Amino acid sequence: MSLAEQVLSGDIRAAARMMRDIDDNRPSAIDELKLLYPHTGKAYIIGITGPPGAGKSTLVDQLTATFRRMGKKVGVVAIDPTSPFTGGAILGDRIRMNRHASDEGVFIRSLATRGALGGLSRSTSDVALVMDALGMEIIIIETVGVGQDEVDIVKTAHTTCVVMVPGLGDDIQAIKAGILEIGDVFVVNKADRDGADRTARELITMLEMRHVPEEIWNPSVLKTEAQRGKGIEELTAEILAHRDYLFSSGAISGFLRERNERHFVDILRDSLFKRALAFMERDNTLFRVVDGMASGGIDPYTAAEQVIGEMVRDNPPP
Amino acid sequence: MSLAEQVLSGDIRAAARMMRDIDDNRPSAIDELKLLYPHTGKAYIIGITGPPGAGKSTLVDQLTATFRRMGKKVGVVAIDPTSPFTGGAILGDRIRMNRHASDEGVFIRSLATRGALGGLSRSTSDVALVMDALGMEIIIIETVGVGQDEVDIVKTAHTTCVVMVPGLGDDIQAIKAGILEIGDVFVVNKADRDGADRTARELITMLEMRHVPEEIWNPSVLKTEAQRGKGIEELTAEILAHRDYLFSSGAISGFLRERNERHFVDILRDSLFKRALAFMERDNTLFRVVDGMASGGIDPYTAAEQVIGEMVRDNPPP
Asked: Which residue among B92, B146, B289 sits closest to A144, beta carbon to beta carbon?
């Protein structure tokens, strides 16, 4: 039985092995993903994003518990831009999801760093695909929503929850986070802290400034205290309401088109780049270029054009 | 006179136009960058990174003022992952650097979003190159140091300052930031706040855990109150001490090699990807693939292989 078939039969260890193969950039991983692909697309993906310290992990933990009580299998992909020498990702996982450790209906995976060759956005899609094929019905992707990469990642989700927190800094800092336009649901977590109402009001005002037509989904702003489980029920209901909107309005098809395009383009970009690296290895091009840049004889723009000129056909067959 | 020659003669408006051309992905921008390239490499680049709310903008403002007093021309590249509908980048700029607005020795540029085709890391390198050619002696790159992209960007800097702030969340959140290993100088800003000493001690402990050999640079942890200008002098001295270390130890050559390699590879990846997009436009490949993914007849892995197979030569000339 192929690894893909094992995953499709619900074999958790096979899924873990396949994710390792993806991480290690094994060519076999691509073949297995091709086999899985036609059997995916069933999972509902929820993105949780927001600045550090907003309590996203606790919120993910609470949502996981809630969906488990509804009988759903839950996959969690946590994007951790972690320091290699502290081992934070593993530590975080253990503390975070301890109570789900022995639950076979929960599958947790941390993506600690972007691989040398693959983009983080592409790895996340691939890992979510494996979870989907494994039978996870809800997949939660948690990412620190500040970087552009991380904002892109969360676009894979059907429903994106943007988590804010009171007292993060002044207004400009909040605006800067650059994540307002990607939220389907907004959460002010740690709502017992000073300034929670003000943060919520500011979010509402900024959202109103957008003048979204009535028939389009209008995001709500909810308050939660994830540590004490407060507001989780309302948040879950709002996520499900957004799911209903996506399907009943037909917006789902446009969403899937965009997501498919992004996924394909990510794969194309990564694979092309790998080909270029392999191509350059034939005659040590990378070393020669970097040497030439140091001595001043070569500029990187011309060098890139030369490599591409040698590598790419000018007149491809139609 | 070419745009590049105008920039080299110190023409600020020409530099601004060239940066717009880079943003707009004009092919002419590459030609101009090629002309500039041999005249660059003089500027000293300082990276400022850290989580939102750490007060990085104020710190950059203070450092700018300090280097101006030393008679240095200062360029600032602020990476703002900004919401398109709030216009935060512009707002941020105005508030932030108001007092330098009329100073011809200061050139400020915000990179608000990653272009559709180019990576943020590559745009930052290109913009820094133009500032360097324009005669800026110090270039400060400010980025929110949480995302992987943003961490990569700051590696362009000779000296990277990681800015932390007390009370950002619990220890795990701090570890997660994933920016410890890239700091040459660590700053605990807003040092008048509760917990500043604790944050500083934690940083020192984590840095000591690395067991760096004595002859290698050992980062210090400094406390600042950027709003009131406290600690800025010490920070400047530490940055200059790191610069002295780089040059006197010879570490500068390894650093430049890595930076050149990253810059070349970024350009290569972006240019290849642009070629692929142009290639696919010939027969509407992107549309057909996304359509096929929706109907279930095509998987993105196979589709990418096919495009690359048609596009890339198998047996390039040696």
From this structure: B146
B216, two tokens: 């290698």
Whole-complex ipTM: 0.87
pLDDT of residue A256: 94
Tell me the pLDDT tens digit for each residue of B260-295: 999 999 999 989 998 999 999 988 999 999 999 998
- What lies within 8 Å, CB to CB, of B135 at 6+ separation is B10, B73
Residue A98 has pLDDT above 80, yes or no: no
What is the C-alpha to C-alpha distance for residues B271 and B118, in angstroms, rounded to an integer? 8
Contacts of A150 in chain B (CB under 8 A): 146-148
Domain spans in chain B, listed from the N-terminal domain onward: 1-39, 41-249
> A300 and B260: CB-CB below 8 Å?
yes
Asked whether the predicted pLDDT for residue A229 surpasses 70, the reply is yes
Contact B49, B143 (CB under 8 A): yes
Q: How far is CA A16 from CA A13, A42, A89, B120, in A?
A: 5, 19, 16, 32
pLDDT recorded at residue A315 = 58
Sheet order of strands, A106-111 included: A106-111, A74-79, A138-144, A44-50, A159-164, A185-188, A220-223
Structure-token match 């691939």, residue found:
A126
Which architecture characterizes domain A40-251 according to CATH? Answer: 3-Layer(aba) Sandwich (3.40)
Contact flag B146-A149 (C-beta cutoff 8 Å): no
In this structure, the strands spanning B159-164 and B185-188 are parallel
Architecture of domain B41-249: 3-Layer(aba) Sandwich (3.40)
- Beta carbons of B81 and A283 less than 8 Å apart: no
* Nearest CB neighbour to A276, from listed B95, B175, B268: B268
Query: Can you tell me the distance from the alpha carbon of B310 to that of B305, in angstroms, rounded to the nearest whole number?
Result: 9
Task: Tell me whether residues B150 and A151 touch, CB distance under 8 A.
Answer: no
Which of B22, B134, B13, B21 has its CA nearest to residue B74? B134
B303 and A264 within 8 Å at the Cβ level: the answer is yes
Q: CB-CB: which of A210, A256, A310 is closest to B317?
A: A310
Q: Is A71 exposed, middle or buried (0-12, 13-18, 19+ CB in 10 A)?
A: exposed
Give the predicted TM-score (pTM) of the model: 0.84
Q: Do A267 and B210 touch (CB under 8 A)?
A: no
Chain B residues whose CB is inside 8 A of the A273 CB are 268-269, 272-273
User: Rounded to whole angstroms, how far apart are CA atoms B307 and A268?
Assistant: 8
Q: Which residues of B touch A181 (CB under 8 A)?
A: 83-85
Q: Inter-chain contact B178–A83, Cβ cutoff 8 Å?
A: yes
CB nearest A82 (choices: B114, B147, B178): B178
